[in-house]
Amino acid sequence: MFTGIVEERGEVVAVEQLADAARVTIAGPLVTSDAKRGDSIAVNGVCLTVVEHSGGSFTADVMHETLVRSSLDGVTAGHAVNLERAAAVGQRFGGHIVQGHVDGTGELVSRSPSPHWDLVRFSLPAHLARYVVEKGSITVDGVSLTVVEVGPDWFTVSLIPETLRATTLGLREPGDRVNLEVDVIAKYVEKLAGPHLAAEEGDHR
């Protein structure tokens, strides 16, 4: 589990394309400072497992399902990525519950800079829109953000200078793909409440 508070901006060192997967090596001195084989590190919001690490970098396997669902299918050497180690028990919980399981991808539509923040609009897949609410939480490329406005196929967020400096969101331009993870609590509530709501609807017919 993660919190969506990016620890450092790393860089893709190498990508090895396999038959139905990819193996990526990423430089991240901070997140590898205490890394062990089998540890989880979120890369642009995707939970990956460390299989090797040395010299301030780590290697992870990216399965076909992950490549299909996320923007990691397009990373190449030199790409900047957001990195976060799995949350430790007892630490401050600065963001929200992030699983590192990407629900889909969106696209940066526009950004409106101001002296103190950037207002950024992203496209939103229609099947995810019901989980996104005004002032709710959403994860964009592994960054925990608060939704400003939401429409049927878009949402906006405000990015403060620290977020622009410390994450790849300060580098993104219109047309760039981003990984999206909606609030998992909303999905559980929908599944648990669904049968009861359907039963009530049947009773009123």
From TrEMBL:
Gene3D superfamilies documented for this protein: 2.40.30.20
Catalytic activity: 2 6,7-dimethyl-8-(1-D-ribityl)lumazine + H(+) = 5-amino-6-(D-ribitylamino)uracil + riboflavin
Signal peptide per UniProt: none
E.C. number: 2.5.1.9
Keywords: Repeat, Riboflavin biosynthesis, Transferase
Pathway it works in: Cofactor biosynthesis; riboflavin biosynthesis; riboflavin from 2-hydroxy-3-oxobutyl phosphate and 5-amino-6-(D-ribitylamino)uracil: step 2/2
Ranges where the Lumazine-binding domain occurs: 1-96, 97-193
Coiled coil (UniProt feature): none
Superkingdom of the organism of origin: Bacteria
Keyword set includes Protein transport: no
Stretches forming Lumazine-binding repeats: 1-96, 97-193
Function: Catalyzes the dismutation of two molecules of 6,7-dimethyl-8-ribityllumazine, resulting in the formation of riboflavin and 5-amino-6-(D-ribitylamino)uracil.
UniProt-recorded name of the protein: Riboflavin synthase
Organism for this UniProt entry: Actinokineospora diospyrosa
Lineage, highest ranks first: Bacteria, Bacillati, Actinomycetota, Actinomycetes, Pseudonocardiales
